[in-house]
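We now fix the convention by which a protein and its fold are recorded. The integers have meaning only within a learned vocabulary of local backbone shapes. A complete example follows; check for yourself that the lines match position by position.
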Amino acid sequence: MKFLIFLAVAPVFIFLSCNQHGDARQIPQDSAIAAQLLDLQTYKPLNVIAKYDGPDVALLKKDSTQKYKLEALLYYDENNVGEILSKFMDADFPKANYSREEFEFNWLDDDLKKEIESGDPKYTGSPDIFLGTNGKAKIWFVGRKVLVKLEN
């Protein structure tokens, strides 16, 4: 009898556990890879969320022609943001021609996307001068958050 009840109830639980909402975003889990590709020690972020698409990072050290893409969101405290901005002032605020759309990563939540969209329309991002990529990474400041895009 218990077995028959189990057979009747089990499909309902399976259906409920598999039911996913179409607009749910998965939070990327590649922060360890970001720490290998970016210098996160000099200005240590409070949190890192990153998405990596490419070969094993160990291959990148052997073959610099490997294609990859890293998207990252770095959360900083006020003190580190101040130090980073001072570094940018010392470097005469290096500018770039990056569009805000380049930083609207599909895994970002809607609130952060709105925050990016509502920013200064004249802002065009900056090349990295503090993450150890020698300007290869593109960065976008949003308050105490920094969006990073690094591609090869």
Remarks:
- Confidence is low (pLDDT under 50) at residues 1-23.
- Residues 46 and 133 are 20 Å apart (CA to CA).
